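To: structure subgroup
Subject: Chain for Friday's discussion

All,

I'm putting the inputs and outputs inline so they're searchable in the archive.
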Amino acid sequence: MTAQPPAPGPHAHDDAAPDAAPDAAPDEAPAPVPGEAPDPWADPWSAVAAGWARTWGSFARPVWDPLLAAAGVAPGARVLDVGCGSGELLEHLAARGARPVGVDPAPGMVALARRRAPGVAVHAAAFEELPFDDGTFDVVTAVNALQLADPDEALDEAARVLVPGGALALAGWAERERNDVDALERAVAVALDDDPPTDGPLRLPGGLEAALGDAGLAVVAAGVAAVPWTAPDDDALVAGILLGEDEPVLAELRDAVLRAARPFRTAGGGYRLRNAFRWAVGRTLA
């Protein structure tokens, strides 16, 4: 493992926040050289963008509708999706008649999002440095993204770009005891003689609401959504759980992952893991 950068993995881990190149302006983050793979040390999310889109891109879909309903997203609403990844939520928002814009710090993700949601503006930018004027958006969404940023700076920026009375809609992994994926991550930690992963504060009951309140927003709704993840076979399961790892590491950890996944195997030979996302919506002062 020492020869590999931190793997993004399914959780977009609570303590790892890959950013765009340090000196790059929001829309000037360096794109990969055509024909060359992105450097996984310099830009780990671009390096796994295609794999992420294939295995996890639409995974959070069950939380979208309750989150958007609570935020009051209606046709014509100006919605900024922060940490838009490969663009699945942008595509969904456009189909609902909203006017979405996306930002993501990884140029590889930005490229995929632009292809998935043609006609939607997608910018390379960090959560803490949004390239928009004050009061530009009616709603800001951040799904599985806040834990990758500095939460205080990110929420201040999100509030800045909202209109008075605008909605900030957050969603992310719930506490690990609610997630079958955690059984596999614990097995990987044991195999590597690492400490087991722990819950960050945003995962815990009331964590998102507290973050919104600390940022000066009034919490208007919160909940929990079931977000199952399925893999059609052993290879897809291992690739998804160990996203970003090289072939030797995949081979080393394969048996540990498959043993831990046995309780979740389906009659058809695939896997279904039950998980949960917490979500919360806050509004700025009108």
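Points worth raising on Friday:
DSSP finds ten helices and nine strands in the chain.
The first strand starts at residue 78 and ends at 82.

D.
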